[in-house]
Amino acid sequence: MTTEPPKSPKGKSITKTSSSDADTRRELLPWVEKYRPSTLNEVTGQDNIISTVRKFITAGRLPHMLFYGPPGTGKTTTILAIARELYGEKSFRHMVLELNASDDRGIDVVRNQIKTFASTRQMFANSKHNFKLVILDEADAMTNIAQNALRRVIEKYTNNTRFCIIANYAHKINPALLSRCTRFRFSPMSPEAIRTRLDVVIAAENVKIDADAVDALVTLAKGDMRKVLNVLQPCHLATTGETGVAATVTVAMVYECVGCPVPADVRRLMTTIIEDDWTTAVRTVAKIKADRGLALADILEALATEFEGYELKPEARIALLEGLSEIEYRLSGGGNEAIQTSGAIGVVKRALDIQGGIVQE
Ligand SMILES: Nc1ncnc2c1ncn2[C@@H]1O[C@H](COP(=O)(O)OP(=O)(O)OP(=O)(O)O)[C@@H](O)[C@H]1O
Ligand SMILES: [Mg+2]
Fold first, then answer.
1. How many Cβ atoms from other residues are within 10 Å of residue 151's Cβ?
2. Domains of the chain by start residue, with CATH
3. What is the rounded CA–CA span in Å between residue 76 and residue 99?
4. Residues lining ligand 1, CB < 6 A?
5. What are phi and psi for residue 61, nearest 5 degrees?
6. What pLDDT, in 10s, does the model give residues 174-218?
7. How far apart are alpha carbons 331 and 117 in whole angstroms?
8. CA separation for the pair 92, 6 (Å, rounded)
9. Residue 140: pLDDT above 80?
10. Closest alpha carbon to 248 in 214, 292, 210, 298
11. Ligand 1, atom 25: nearest CA belongs to which residue?
């Protein structure tokens, strides 16, 4: 006699996912997800925030919270780890309502989804944490009317619900809403914190990488851990041959993947713009751009960073930065790349005229 697999209420066969299925799924995840810390202990470089949150959890008195700060610093990761710690994997689904930018962010969500979730009584609460959690990720995308409506909902359901609002910029959140939350500012991750986390991934994935490539990754990421992993994974894949054996990730690969000119190219760009006549400089810059597949936006950023190391008169620096910002603005509005490239060279040359000679620090 054969036994049929059990049926769900809708008549579909229920197949239990084996742990090896779960392992395979995990293997296929992008590294940013695969290495998203699942516990608060694993969240790196935000020690003050984690220790404060821990105290709140231990005391069973979680306030409404606002997490804000730049991308890839651990805001979403931290609240998910908190939720897991509070409820465990089993009750997570019943106790947590997670809304992010992919959901509708209008007044209807507040009126319907959030209100319904917050007002229904919880059956799965444990004795200590008898409140539910509403996570409003990327809340800067919520309409003003929705934010206004939320003020009332937060107050009304404080008895059984806590809210965690997550945003990149606190100033985009309604001040009345802000005053109802305890604020936590996530700073860009420090180079040391990035290195610590990077080492974990490098070891787990057996990545071979030059020391200066690690340095470049840490510098170019500017505190964004997501960016680090999103650059490391394709670099590692690119070095993996058909045999599955990976070669070493080099500094040039990191720069290429980030889309930044390598230091040697930046030096060539600087030399031609500073020393050559305008026509030669335009041709040389165009050639470097074509050879390296660079966009003017990347070059503008590299020039601005490079000139930070030069001693310039205030008038010259102002002319330089104003000019480069203007070009960046025009580019973002659809300005012609070739014309704006000539413009950028003109901006640097004019700043150097004002300076009347250049001294590197
Ligand atoms: N503090 C951290 N410790 C360890 N890994 C981190 C940390 N911050 C970010 N990461 C890594 O970067 C990925 C993205 O992090 P997360 O989603 O928490 O960023 P975020 O701060 O919510 O950014 P955004 O503002 O863009 O939503 C995570 O999956 C994880 O791999
Ligand atoms: Mg996030």
1. 15
2. 46-185 (3.40.50.300), 191-258 (1.10.8.60), 263-360 (1.20.272.10)
3. 11
4. 32-33, 35-37, 43-46, 71-77, 168, 186, 189, 197, 225-226, 229
5. -130, 65
6. 898 899 999 999 999 999 999 999 999 999 999 999 999 999 999
7. 45
8. 25
9. yes
10. 210
11. 71
